[in-house]
Amino acid sequence: MRFFKIILHSFVALLFLNTACTKSDSSKIDEESTTQILDPFADNNGFFPSPEVYDGPFFKANYNYPEDVPERSYPWEEVLGGMPLTKNNAVEYIMAVRQYIAEDMTLMIDQPEVWTDSPNRQNWYNMAWSAQSYHDSTGWDGLESVYGTMTGQVIKNDVFKDYGFDSPMQNHALVYYNDISALTLNQLWKSNSPTGFFPDYTTSAAQFKQNAIVIKAAGTTATAAEWPVLEGAGTFPIYREALFGPNVGKGPILQELTWIQFDIIIKDTIASPETGWVFSTFIYDVNSPGTSTFDRLTLLGVSWGNDPGKMEGDETLEETYLNPNAPSYAAVTIGYGNRLSGPIDVSLVGGVQVEPKPVDSVLVLGPNNEILGSNKYLHFTASACLSCHSTASWPEQNDFYPSPDPGQKLVFSDTLFNPSSIEWSNYFQNRPGTEIMVNSEGVNNSIMALDYDLFMQFALNNSLLGQQNLPKGIKIPAGYTLLNSEKHQPQLKLRSK
Known about the structure:
Shape: globular
Distance between the termini: 18 Å
Number of strands: 19
């Protein structure tokens, strides 16, 4: 569930267009110099389908962050009764959260043609430094112009082969923050200057407040005709390049995605006093009696901790609840040791079966993390929601998976620590959002702990472009010191295999 295990970059540049693509003024490109005019608060990536291809509403990001939010009582607080969450009340708790946001989310999922311009949309906010495409500089492709999705990874063709689908598919996802979450975004991006060019690069600025909610809603390029488990699921349009199939290399095209996964992530230090967060995943259920797509998104599970110490892979977990009646296709992507992970979250690292032998296999190091005694696997379950998000710091210093190379960004290949090692268990600790996860060498090179938000990690990397290329007329606020450009360079995030 990496809202942000959704690895958010794309291999094909958006910076070339075909006859179905137009570029508006909001793309912020200087035609004479071809130099991009940076805009932390851009509407979208600026690449639009032509009117002949699409005549619906376009996505505009919402950065009208509140400066305060009135105190309220919330129904999930009654479920807890002041006590931490348990497996006995996890379902009641997360369903109370879901019901609280149901009106807005039903509109977003079931009426995409209405959502974009609806008053409900204004209840949800976007991350600064995420809308524009910085493909050549950081590998980031921005938020596409039709529905505001980010690009996700391609899931190889054999992952769901035992569940009726044997083709590759790609996911694209929306990420929104509620008003309480947006208080943090306001502090991070606007407290030093309303321009967004002078972030508050401190751990305290990145901390979310109690009852902050983040949602991630994802669609897949797979269709119901191709995969019967999606029959009856609603769809929504996006404007992105294709990474497989006959349209590869043709630039962005209008695509219709099918809803498959919906995540609710809530900051709640009462429910989860050790990590401070509760993660949940809902997936499309063709057998649900629900009357709408949102209704048919069935609970897969809830997680509020990493169950430290339970590293054998088969112990009973106390900080994860998995729904025994969830659709069976999700079983293959459940996280390490039966921790929570959804179908698009790629906790299952691995390759693809190609006769006569597999390719893109995974190397799992020996008991002392040495090559001697290592083994190769076609697939290996290596992550989970909270373990992945616990790596969130800036500048980043850990892979999303238990890997010796922080630059790998594993999805389908390369090397993993041994599950019996200290380095592996380091990924499955319960840390507060103020604590930076040290790297595999026990070293800390990060300057900010990001409170489990990997999307923020990507945005902060993009923000370095502004630190080093301030547009004309943007003045440095009194008392503000730009980051050392030699020490803090924007990192190019290459897409994983």
